[in-house]
Amino acid sequence: MNKDNQIEQxxxxxxxxxxLGPRSARRAVLHLLRHKDSLMRQMAISLEATxxxxxxxxxxGNMDTSSPCSICIxxxxxxxxxxxxxxxxxxxxxxxxxxxSGLYHVLGGTLSAVNGRTADxxxxxxxxxxxxxxxxxxxxxxxxxxxxxxxxxxxxxxxLAEFNLNLSRLACGLPIxxxxxxxxxxxxxxxxxxxKAFK
Length: 199
Ligand SMILES: [Zn+2]
Prior knowledge:
The chain is an alpha/beta fold and 199 residues long. The protein is built from eight helices and six strands; from the N terminus they run αααββαβαβαβαβα. The protein has helices spanning 6-14, 22-34, 36-53, 70-73, 88-97, 125-133, 147-159, 185-193, and strands spanning 55-56, 63-64, 78-85, 102-106, 138-141, 166-169. The chain is globular. The site of zinc ion has 8 residues, from helix 4.
């Protein structure tokens, strides 16, 4: 790649975005070039403004243009419930579903012996502090259904045992419309072990 060429440079930058390989990056850049005034300039202004404004929420660890973030300060959120997630991507995924109206806490990863991540590397102290200082009655552990996610959830459960909290885990199970035959063994065994009484 010729980095002196501005268009090639732009394609290179786009190709670093998750989900965009060199081919998609080339198509995206070509689209921008064709819509220079209606899209490209607006994008440049928006990128610059957002880069200058973005910060981590001191309370929950979300990324927003203000701290506390817009979720933490919103009046109609249930301030007694905290959903604990591994990453901001997970927080945004739950927000997109529109089914949860409580608060969040972003751990910033999982415990991992392989990657040398310990409890000190995660935002667990700040979670405990929030529980002590606020009127929190329920914690939903929404870590991923991976070995590391489960280990982290178990660890946090132990840490929070001293508080009088309603602790829950996300149910793992069958995707809507899923056929048993097509499921991986992990999903099927999680669905089986989280089975409910038939009413
Ligand atoms: Zn926040």
